[in-house]
Amino acid sequence: MFFDVLFVGIMVGAIYTLVTIGYSMVYSILKLMNFAHGDVYMFGTFICYTLLAKYNMNPILAIIIAAALGGLLASLVEIVAYRRLRAEQHRMISMITALGAAYVIQNSNELKWGNQVLPFPSILSTEALHVFGLNIPLTQIITLGIAVGLIVLFTLFLKYHSYGKAILCVSEDIPTASLMGIPINKTITMVYFIGGMLGVIGGILYSSSYNAVSLAMGFRGTIIAFTAAVIGGIGSLSGALIGGMIMGICENFIGVYVSSAYRDPITFLLLIIILLVKPTGIMGVVEQSKV
Amino acid sequence: MKNTIIEQKKPFNDLKNTKFKSVLSLAKNKKGLFVLLTLVCILLPNMMTNMYYLGIINYMILYSILCMGLNLILGYAGLLSLGHAAFYGLGGYATAILITRYGFGFLPAMIISGIIALLFGMLLGLPTRKVRGDYFCLLTIAFGEIFRLVAQAWIGFTNGAMGIVGIPIPNILGWSIRTEVDFYYLGLMLLAFTYFTLSLLVHSRFGRAFIAIREDELAASVMGINTAVYKIIVFGIGCFYAGLAGSYLAVYQTTITPSNFRLEESCLMIIMVIVGGMGSLLAPIAGVIVMTLATEYFRGIAEYRMLIIGVIMVVVLLFRPQGIFGTSAFKG
Amino acid sequence: MSLLTASKIGKNFGGVVALNNVSLTVEKGEIVGMIGPNGSGKTTFINNLSGIYSPTAGNFIFNDEDITGFEAHVITGKGISRTFQNLRVFPNISVLENILIGLHCKIDISLWDVYLRFLKTRKIEARAREKAMKVLAIANLTDSHDTLAKNLPYGKQRLLEICRAIVSDPYLLLLDEPCAGMNPVEMDDLADFIKILQKRGITVFVIEHNMRFIMSVAERIIVLANGLKFAEGTPTQIQNDKKVQAIYLGDEGDL
After folding, report:
1. Which domain does C116 fall in, by range?
2. Which pLDDT band holds residue A288 (cuts at 50, 70, 90)?
3. Which of A90, A97, A272 is facing B314, going by the closest CB pair?
4. Is B123 in a helix, a strand, or coil?
5. Is A291 close to C52, i.e. CB distance below 8 A?
6. Which range of residues forms the domain containing residue A184?
7. Based on CB atoms within 10 Å of each CB, which residue in A214, C31, C95, C206 is the most buried?
8. By the 8 A CB rule, do A241 and A151 touch?
9. Is residue C44 domain-resident?
10. What is the pLDDT averaged over residues A90-109?
């Protein structure tokens, strides 16, 4: 029983990591709390739902299209709503703008898909694998595999691909990166696009595992993303991983051993505790600002 | 070298740097305008035929009280609190429970509700020293959500998602407040109280201290301002008014439920303050009026409500972040 | 008894040693200058003294009281005011309001007074405004009292910042590179202004790069280099000190 819960926790943790990466990247580069993150990737997840449930599309094709559309929406939000405010002194203003964008997208999602829970079809088979005397559903293993695979791919991308390195430069220092000839706007748009894509895939994997998709997952996803990002430390990939894992595992254990009703309050409590104790997170570095 | 003695700042002076001054200067006599406005406010219900519209005005008064308190925190001290609705709800629940379960009269219940909200508000002000800027905003969201979730879960005390119903008609010193008109006058008195007490605060060294904190916290502390303490004070006072408003809501609606203080409500208040203009005492009222009229106008299409609010938020912040009457502090 | 005694002040930031064993005194009524190349620790010294940072070693005795490690607002209350290298006036409020904030400690009004004792509050506020206007008059800023601070020309903003610091009648005024961005005429005006402040009984401690300014204003100069106190003496002594000249070689400061 314990290992079942643990394994689910790890799988969910990997999914949360996918969702958190996009959020964490954006915050670390632009210091913007992208409140719209969750709702944006919910859009992608909903699209996938429609493609699968209504059009019976091939799952892989559906995922690719949904992820691309999610990424596009994320970039669109950046270009329309956030770009102008990048130079803004009062970060409060961009934060509230993000909130506004979140509402627009959430409401649009609601208009199209309603606010009831919809049955998301399982993408993967429901067989179970017998390993080490445990019954682990195949879908969990594959989901974990996909999530981890993507995380690894993305890490490699950041390290070795020229666009990835560009992103790292931009996250260090925008003026310097621009002096190096890196196209800042394009790079930032790419960050949003990739973050949105990863988020959508995370959302799809989640909905597929739980066979449910609903509007409320959007806001919840945003909260999870920033709690995980804060716990692990904003701006570091390993931070997103650690934060996501901690969230996934804790949530599952609490959900099973305590009560599923307390799952959300405890997430918030976790957030508050971390903010009070070490706001920079586990992997984060405390910045000393020069006076 | 001139030895000029500066006249005492009149209540309208804090709108100096905004368009309101040009509007006001049209009125030859500031005092005359003030008297006129007061007369209009007092006689308003007599001029109304449709009580539905008076109901809308009552909501506008309610939100004005909320937003003026929030403006103190956000506009004057520059602290983004996305949990203001929690104190609104706290006030409402406090009044509801005190009246229905312990037989308190309305006036004492309202005062106690305000104080409870004040105390919890101060609690929110405590972590500002350790938790900075953006992270603090997250904290306020978490704070607000936990209140709501606790209210939902603690069925024994708050009756859970059903909320508290059947709050009786309030009675202040013999005056039974039961009609729209009655509530109008009650609201108006609360609003006047809010305005005058805030005005006193804002024109004192405390108000200046809050502004200093907003402008440059480090420099403020070097001016001798204990920023940690002042942030606690500003939260306490700002949330006090939210508690009063919640108290009003409880008796106006005769029910209080957790859905009264969702994050959505906090965001609505924030956007009202922003649209009206931050940092200027009466400016939030403009924001309340604009947003209420907008949501009323679109009432037929209620399901587009958040969409419209969201669009307004984004548009205002992109193109006129200082709102209608706000100080230049927030100009883009 | 010296007004201020700094004993063996040390400050580390992580592994970086910004200040090392710096000791100095400031006597009442003096104008003391501190010079040194970029990064020598001058601003760090003032930041530690004014309470923005806490020294990792050593202590500050001010008016016979150990103020080491006190918070900034407490130290201001003890009578030490300062200005900032990168100019920190409150931009979006008027000149007069900036000065009034400088008087914050001296306006003895509690929350109780604000709400319940109108007459007392009104009287004290009026007196505060008079005081503020007097200070503005000394600096010739009376006409701009209503202007938003950010709309003032740069030189006047600097003057405003100093006015804001002195309105509370501090014992000791710390000036952090007050000449930055000024032209020679403004600098001379500032030098005169500082001498006026001295006549009014304010002890002044100035950090500056600009040698000409420091030589014309300071009675005693302390040289900081690499976080260490390098030399100390009268302007003439420092000017002729070969070692001091050497540490400035290759640096931007004009000799």
Report:
1. 90-169
2. low
3. A97
4. helix
5. yes
6. 17-223
7. C95
8. yes
9. yes
10. 85
Domain count of the fold of chain A: 1
Strands C16-26 and C80-82: unpaired
Neighbours of A29 (CB within 10 A): 22
B320: left (phi over 0), alpha (psi -120 to 50) or beta: beta
d(C-alpha A272, C-alpha B138), whole Å: 8
Minimal-distance CA residue of chain A relative to C52? A291
Residue B134 confidence (pLDDT): 77
Question: Using an 8 Å Cβ cutoff, are A2 and A234 in contact?
Answer: no
Are C103 and C226 in the same domain? no
Q: Do A291 and C14 touch (CB under 8 A)?
A: no
Report if residue C84 sits inside a domain: no
Write down the mean pLDDT value for chain C.
90
- Spatial strand order of the sheet with C16-26 comes to C16-26, C4-13, C57-62, C65-66
A153 vs A155: CA distance, rounded Å: 5
Q: Given pLDDT bands bounded at 50, 70 and 90, which one contains residue A123? A: confident
Digit-coded pLDDT (tens) for B243-292: 999 999 999 999 999 988 888 889 889 989 988 888 789 899 999 998 88
CA-CA distance, C205 to C188, in Å (whole number)?
17
**More confident call, B89 vs A131:** B89
CA distance C194 to C182: 15
Nearest-angstrom CA–CA distance, B60 and A154: 50
pLDDT of residue C203: 95
Structural domain includes residue A244: no
Domain count, chain C: 2
Rounded Cα distance between B155 and A110, Å, is 29
Give residue ranges of A with CB < 8 Å to any B CB: 27, 31, 33, 80-81, 84-85, 88, 90-97, 99-108, 110-111, 219, 223, 226, 230, 261-262, 264-265, 268-269, 271-272, 275-276, 279, 291
Cβ-Cβ contacts under 8 Å for A40 (sequence gap 6 or more)? A70, A73, A74, A77, A105, A196, A199
C217 in the same domain as C250: yes
Mutation target vs B (from C43, C92, C97, C162; most B CBs, 10 A cutoff): C92
Q: Give the Å distances, CA to CA, from B109 to A94, B92, B251.
A: 39, 10, 11
